[in-house]
From TrEMBL:
The keyword Transmembrane applies. The lineage of its organism: Bacteria, Pseudomonadati, Pseudomonadota, Gammaproteobacteria, Pseudomonadales. It is found in: Cell membrane. This is Acyltransferase 3 domain-containing protein. Signal peptide: none annotated. Keywords: Cell membrane, Membrane, Transmembrane, Transmembrane helix. The chain crosses the membrane at residues 12-32, 44-65, 86-104, 124-143, 155-171, 177-195, 207-225, 237-253, 265-285, 305-326. Pfam families: Acyl_transf_3 (PF01757). Coiled coil: none annotated. InterPro entries: Acyl_transf_3_dom. PANTHER family: O-ACETYLTRANSFERASE WECH. Belongs to the acyltransferase 3 family.
């Protein structure tokens, strides 16, 4: 399987994860987002995503990590790379966003300024994912670096360990997103297992995979419509099973979509900035008197997806903004070509 083919399938799943994430935050939890009440089809859609949305994002992270995992003694470079990619945007995007939310008018979430300034330690917004996945990368990277994950048996053992932690009650203090890390770890390891067995999965489940995912989605929609309280507990055996099976089913389907692949290429920017653009859309449409839920959701979804893409295009043009706000590696300037002295030859005279 070529690297291009791998990119197409994974970037498609990235794009799907972005779509699910932005749609959820546009609709919002109860009392948030568009403040859509129970009984609305959009509320049912938002609730039904809970077992798939962040597990899919994390599954993809584990899959990609398994391709480019630590080799040799380069843990320091690995650590520095993750700090640049995750922690720098946490301080430069996540904390300012939380402060803006604390002081800005018309926001749905009541956030104190002190809590906003300390959000790098105790998360209060969707940026908890940055802290959680950073902790996972460092934990798994250390195990890999020390040679503790060199066999399939050990990898499955790590999944079993992560599953046990997942099912335990959350810790009372969510310092540096530790509860988020415990929640996401099984899906990260499942992504590693999926990458190690991707060819077998596609051979055996290429047809069954998409059918299974559709069946799971319809079941979740039905349960969310009947009683949302049955579906909102993420850290449960059902949540773990449905999340892992859904991710494996999507991977085995070998799904390709040019639109989703394009979105997937901007997945990090979409994650970081989609809430800002979705909230702006809600504010602007509200000022114009738009009250139709469908128009509000469509406007928020479009802005939440396309706004970060445009922002990423601008930020990527400059090293300063691309490093601070996107966590990208600074582009190295090409050295100037040496000036070759002109030597006159007989033919040039």
């Amino acid at each position: 399987m070529s690297s291009k083919k791998k990119s197409l399938e994974i970037e498609t799943l990235r794009g799907l994860a972005c779509l699910l994430l932005v749609l959820y935050h546009v609709i919002g939890p109860l009392g948030g987002g568009l403040k859509i009440d129970i009984g609305s089809p959009f509320r049912v859609i938002a609730d039904s995503m809970v077992y798939v949305r962040m597990p899919l994002f994390t599954f993809i992270s584990g899959y990609i990590y398994s391709i480019y995992k630590i080799r040799g003694n380069d843990f320091s470079a690995f650590f520095a790379g993750k700090v640049r990619r995750l922690i720098v945007p946490l301080f430069c995007v996540g904390v300012p966003f939380s402060v803006l939310q604390a002081v800005g008018p018309g926001v749905n979430k009541d956030v104190g300024v002190i809590d906003a300034l300390l959000s790098f330690w105790v998360p209060i917004n969707h940026f908890w994912f940055l802290q959680a996945v950073f902790s996972i990368f460092i934990f798994v990277g250390l195990l890999e670096w020390r040679g503790l994950l060199r066999s399939a048996t050990r990898l499955y053992g790590l999944f079993a360990f992560a599953a046990v932690l997942f099912l335990l009650p959350p810790l009372p203090l969510d310092a540096f997103g530790i509860n988020g890390a415990i929640y996401l770890l099984p899906f990260f390891v499942a992504g590693m297992i999926g990458q190690e067995n991707v060819d077998v999965l596609k051979q055996r489940f290429k047809v069954i995979g998409p059918l299974l995912f559709v069946l799971i989605s319809l079941t979740l929609l039905y349960v969310a419509a009947i009683d949302r309280e049955l579906i909102v507990d993420r850290r449960s055996l059902i949540g773990l099973t449905v999340g892992c099976v859904s991710c494996i089913a999507l991977l085995s389907s070998d799904m390709r979509s040019k639109a989703l692949t394009w979105l997937g290429g901007y997945s990090y920017a979409i994650f970081l900035f989609h809430v800002l653009f979705a909230a702006t859309s809600r504010f602007v449409l509200g000022r114009f008197g738009v009250k139709d839920e469908s128009l509000l959701v469509l406007g928020g979804l479009s802005c939440g997806l396309l706004g970060p893409v445009l922002l990423a295009m601008v930020f990527s043009r400059f090293n300063f903004t691309s490093v601070l706000f996107l966590g990208e590696r600074a582009a190295k300037r090409k050295p100037l070509a040496p000036i070759t002295p002109v030597v006159q030859t007989q033919s040039s005279l």
